[in-house]
Amino acid sequence: MTSTSGSSTHSPVETAAIVAHGRVDVREAVERVRAVAERADVELVDEPERAQLAVAVGGDGTILRLLGTEIPVIGINFGRVGFLASIAPDLLEDDLARVFAGDYRTIEQPTLEAQLDGQTLVAVNDVVATSSTLGRMIELGWSVAGEDLGVVSCDGMICSTPSGSTAYNLSNGGPVLVRGLDAMAITFIAPHSLHARPLVVPRGAELTVRNATPDVDAAVLADGRESGELVPGRTLSIRLGEQRSLLATLPETTFFGRYRETFTS
Q: Can you give the pTM of this predicted structure?
């Protein structure tokens, strides 16, 4: 089971990377991060893989793109939702100084591993199978843990991790997965059925998706990147992988507190 709390005792940060993915609207915030790092005697490096900690300045998308690096990622929220971020812009200096001093938690989250035509895909956020032809629905046969669950006419299917459950999955009516769950969510996109309900699946229960459409290919995307085609009659398998993504948060930041602030207020 993935840790819901993580360790809050870390040694002071010695090296860090700042990532904003080219957003010009956060340049001032990036300079503020640099100033905090200088005061804390933290060396800033260009590549997150060389850092002890990555500081994401932006929204959830910026954080999610960093989670696959196997480096803890702390988010400063300059996005619309910022559910994964732990630091508010007006508290940047004080909270980031605490983080650089080692006062943060690291939460492990599962990743997805998919098999498509002999190719292995790893996703931190989600794996999606969707119609390759605009305006054409597809028919997807699906099974979980070897048990056939029928065929659904839809625009596609999303399989997401807890980290990714608040992204494309949520916008399509899928469930929010609590941090620490070692599970994945399966959600259909615009299903033409009242019986195609989202499903939460534990580790060890593999999802198999078959393109049952006779004349339409399905595009397969891993974390938003097109990674292959699911041609008619072929299958895609998805399971929880062994690799973990690492989300860093302030010790007092809880999943339910962020949920309340983001989705109920």
A: 0.82
